Amino acid sequence: MQSVPVCAPALPTPRQFVVKALHVREGAWLSAGQPVATLISGTEEHTVMAPQAGCIAGLHHQPEDILLSGAVIGWIQQNNFIRADDFDPDAVLVYGGGGHGQVLLDLIRQAGRFHLVGVVDDRLPRGDYLLGVPVLGGGECLIEWRQKGVALAVNGVGGIGNPMAREGVFTQLEQAGFFFPTLVHPRALVEAAATLHPGVQVLAMAYVGPCVEVGFGSLLNVGAIASHHCRLGRVTNLSPGATLAGGVSLGDYTQIGMNATVNVNLNIGKHCLIGNGATVKADVPDGTRVRAGHIWPPLHTTSQTGGTHVSQESPTNSPA
Fold first, then answer.
1. Strand ordering across the sheet containing 66-68
2. Does residue 141 lie in a domain region?
């Protein structure tokens, strides 16, 4: 799916803008040139227009927020599906009725932005109810509901230990013609200077600091912290209580376990798994698994013969 940023004007001299008004809501379908926001800089007003037609996601700003020149306000999503004339910008379905999916049902209710149409899950009987929300059927019903005008879908598969399972749900939904709204719990805090891509989910008590960029489909679970200037790649996952110090970079599909900590300005590669309670003090190569409760890099000890060796409990030799 293609996503094009909607940005504050990029001016030749650094300037700040104050958000005067937002003219659209998360998940709305926009026409090219449709007003998205009105910004004020000094005595000047600037109207930001949609650069192309599509479904907008990533909106998290409020009036009076301060934006920098060129800041991303949201993203316009496009796909090859011809949208139905009865596109409903308020209707959303959740794919996945497990634990994470049920957390999202409550988040959507508390946020009050969308109308929950139902849950799609291959393991649940059609016609049942999950937390009061009807089960629509399995994946085979996605095209049916897309043709009924439901165009927004939320990925309720957390993908713990297997981020490609979560990625696969995004692919299935995209192929059926759905778009991915960004979800932020009312009791999470996302700073105005942060950027959230489509499909991002920020759960209760999580914190997203200034100048943080959270990549497509990523998840910040309860109480997770992404401090200033962090960069999270595609479909990354911060488990409950995970903490990234400032300037940390996470590669695509990397997962940080519960209460794990990553020190300032480190780079964690793609497809890494940092175990629960681990402490990361150095860069981590692609594909590394750091064992739960351990410290990265592995400790080196001096043998009685004077040589050095890596501890056999090294995270590289053990599952997270």
1. 44-49, 35-41, 16-22, 66-68
2. yes
Which segments in the chain show pLDDT lower than 50? 84, 301-303, 305-320
User: For position 209, what pLDDT does the model report?
Assistant: 98
Beta carbons within 8 Å of 201's beta carbon, 6+ residues apart: 104, 107, 154, 155, 182, 183, 218, 219, 220
Domain coverage including residue 37: 1-74
Check residue 274 and give its pLDDT. 98
Question: How high is the pLDDT of residue 82?
Answer: 54
Element (DSSP H or E) covering residue 22: strand 16-22
Q: What are phi and psi of 232, to 5 degrees?
A: -110, 130
For 13, 85, 140, 160, 208, the CA distances from 281, given in Å and listed in that order, are: 38, 53, 46, 23, 21
Q: Which two tokens stand for residue 52?
A: 């192309």
7 inside domain: yes
Residue 134, in any domain of the structure: yes
Q: What is the CATH number of the domain that holds 22?
A: 2.40.50.100
In whole angstroms, how far apart are CA 196 and each of 25, 192, 238, 316?
A: 15, 10, 15, 32
Cα 277 to chain centroid distance, Å, stands at 22
pLDDT tens profile 104-152: 999 999 999 999 999 999 999 999 999 999 999 999 999 999 989 999 9
Model-level pTM?
Answer: 0.91
Cα pseudo-dihedral 198, 203, 208, 212, rounded to 10: -30
Are residues 65 and 109 located together in one domain of the fold? no
CA-CA-CA-CA dihedral for 147, 150, 154, 159, to nearest 10: -20
